[in-house]
Amino acid sequence: MRVTRESLLRIAKETAQERAYNDADIIAAYLTGSLLNVDPMLGGTADIDIVFVHKSQPKQAREFVKLTPDFHLDVSRRMKEEFKSPRELRGDPWLGYEMYDPILLYEREKFFDFVQASLRAGFDFEQPPLMLQRCRKMLSHGRGIWMDLTEAEESAVGPKEVRRYMKSLFHALNAVAELSGPPIQERRLLLEFPARAEAAGKPDMVATAFSLLGSNRVDVDKVKTWLSDWKSAYTLACEKPGVDLRIHPARLNYYEKAVKAMLEGNIPFAALWPLLSTWTSAAQTLEGDHLEFWRKAAGELGLLGSEFAARLEGLDRFMDEIEITFEEIARDNGLDVEAPAGL
User: Fold this and answer.
1) Higher pLDDT, 320 or 88
2) Average pLDDT value for residue range 3-23
3) Which member of 12, 68, 96, 249 lies 3.0 to 4.6 Å from 92 by CB, making a disulfide possible if both were Cys?
4) Which of 105, 123, 141 lies at the terminal end of a domain, its last residue?
5) Where in the sequence is the domain holding 217, given as residue range(s)?
6) What pLDDT sits at residue 336?
7) d(CA 295, CA 315)
8) Could you tell me if residue 149 is inside a domain?
9) Domains in the chain: how many in total?
């Protein structure tokens, strides 16, 4: 079956119209994510990210629907209430960009135009004051997670702590990425970060980012040997109650084929992020040999035991460097060097 961006866009529009026809609570739907790009495929796979806006609280916040083994719907639901203050949206590092330039799929009320016009008012969304506000909020989220992790005991470090560490690093990397565009989603995080760091005038951050994940401790062939254990863990975790929603059967090829494509590409260690993030989420629900396989890989990356504390120290220095970068940008633009209270 030949799948193109145009055919996926058509599926998105048809899905939005069908869902809205059968649910009067839906007032709008829009497309976000990789399909906004000219080439959304990675490893021959892609998802269709649709956001439905509801009048009242939806029963289900997120849903995955398999279309083929390589393509699926990623449906998110938001309440109209979340968009009531476009001024606040402009400073939101996630929802601000989500609403800034999506593709409108359906609208029952004149909701979309009003919110987007308010969001873009004054053409200052991408200017330094609002840009720095969003970046600082993103970094603040990462710093908060990091502070909680500093209290972790070496002997107690496991999937939960490594997952939190990665979440903190994820926010730090995206704080840099938002200096030149929208945040980067998990599958492409380390694939696109080098260009974002270059755009920010901080190319040295690339090596730091990869080393904080342990790429300097292994080679590509070693990572390839983990794929079988990763796949087994992912498949088993799909059946476990309470597992992260993203560990879903419909997304197996979405991750596996992307990881394999990156391992053979120009930035092979970019594959570490989707591989380790999903494996770590899966490992939280597993035990026995499957947990030990994850522990062996995480240990080789330097993310367990006494080395975890060293990783936290490195992440601390990295976030300090990012904060200094923000201060430099603020100073160059005549803005407050210190982040406003509450960020």
Assistant:
1) 320
2) 95
3) 96
4) 123
5) 128-323
6) 81
7) 21
8) yes
9) 2
Do 237 and 106 belong to one domain? no
Confidence of residue 142 (pLDDT cuts 50, 70, 90): very high
Which residues neighbour 167 within 8 Å (Cβ) at sequence distance 6 or greater?
142, 145
Lookup: tokens for 7: 């055919």
pTM, full prediction: 0.95
Query: Does residue 317 sit within a domain?
Result: yes
The reported pLDDT for the residue numbered 247 is 97
Residue keyed to tokens 């929603």: 245
Six-digit token pair at 93?
């590092």
Exposure pattern of 239-259 as b/e (b: 16+ CB <10 Å)?
eeeebbebbbebbbbbbbbbb
Domain CATH code at residue 81:
3.30.460.10
- Three state DSSP letters for the chain: CCCCHHHHHHHHHHHHHHHHHCCCCEEEEEEEHHHHCCCCCECCEEEEEEEEEECCCCCCCEEEEEEECCEEEEEEEEEHHHHCCHHHHCCCCCHHHHHHCCEEEEECCCCHHHHHHHHHHHHCCCCHHHHHHHHHHHHHHHHHHHHHHCCCCHHHCCHHHHHHHHHHHHHHHHHHHCCCCCCCCHHHHHHHHHHHHHHCCCCHHHHHHHHHCCHHHCCHHHHHHCHHHHHHHHHHHCCCCCCCCCCCHHHHHHHHHHHHHHHCCCCHHHHHHHHHHHHHHHHCCCCHHHHHHHHHHHHHCCCCCHHHHHHHHHHHHHHHHHHHHHHHHHHHCCCCCCCCCCC
- Residues 99-112, mean pLDDT to the nearest whole number: 88
84 pLDDT band, cuts 50/70/90, is: confident
Model pLDDT for residues 211-234, shown as the tens digit of each residue: 999 999 999 999 999 999 999 999
Average pLDDT over every residue of 83-98: 88
Q: Residue 342 — very low, low, confident or very high, per pLDDT cuts 50/70/90?
A: low
